[in-house]
Amino acid sequence: TEPAFVVPVAIKLVPELYGEGQYGVIATAPIPAKTKIWVWTDRVRQIPPDEIEHYLEQQALAMMMTRNDRASDAKTQQQDNKESRLLEAKQIILRQGFVLPAPNDQIFNSNPTDAGRFMNHSNTPTCG
Questions:
Q1: Is the pLDDT score of 24 beyond 90?
Q2: What is the pLDDT of residue 95?
Q3: Among 112, 16, 5, which residue's Cα sits nearest to residue 60?
Q4: Neighbours of 101 (CB within 10 A)
Q5: What DSSP assignment string belongs to 63-118?
Q6: Residue 15 above 50 pLDDT?
Q7: Confidence band (pLDDT; 50, 70, 90) for 79?
Q8: Which residue, 52, 35, 36, 54, is CA-closest to 97?
Q9: What pLDDT is stored for residue 3 in this prediction?
Q10: Separation between Cα atoms, residue 93 and residue 38, nearest integer Å
């Protein structure tokens, strides 16, 4: 199974549910009700409000590099295209993170190396 998950899961592309290029966590075996499915690990990074902009910038640039999405030195590379890709990467990082209820509601939790980032963190979760 994936790191931090304590039940058997797989990460799969689910464009029919969430759009092109989007992933989801799919159970690979039945999971009994009330079973803990994920545990908090040191893969989760807690980002205070005064560090979020810097964190997003650094993580987005790293994401672009791992996607081989580097801006070339060629003059044909337009800055607005790079800015658009950077914004898209930041949106992905934010969508894959989460904020806990009060009193920890000022901390952004990011898990860039944990498959838990593919869980549905919306107000209408699909598990639990």
A1: no
A2: 86
A3: 112
A4: 6
A5: HHHHTT-PPPSSTTS-HHHHHHHHHHHHHHHHHT-B-PSTTSTT-EEE-TTSGGGG
A6: yes
A7: low
A8: 52
A9: 74
A10: 19
Please give the model's pTM, rounded to 2 decimal places: 0.73
**Residue for token pair 């040191």:** 42
Burial group, residue 111, by CB count within 10 angstroms (0-12, 13-18, 19+):
buried
Structure tokens, 112: 């860039």
Query: Hey, what are 48's tokens?
Result: 């205070």
* Mean pLDDT rounded to a whole number for the chain: 83
Is residue 37 within 8 A of residue 5, CB to CB? The reply is: yes
The Cα 126–Cα 31 span in angstroms is 14
Structure tokens at 119: 């869980």
Please tell me the distance from the alpha carbon of residue 60 to that of residue 76, in angstroms, as a whole number. Answer: 22
- Record the tokens describing residue 94, joined without a space: 């934010």
- Tell me if 35 sits within 8 A of 5, measured CB to CB: no
pLDDT in tens, 80-90: 588 888 999 99
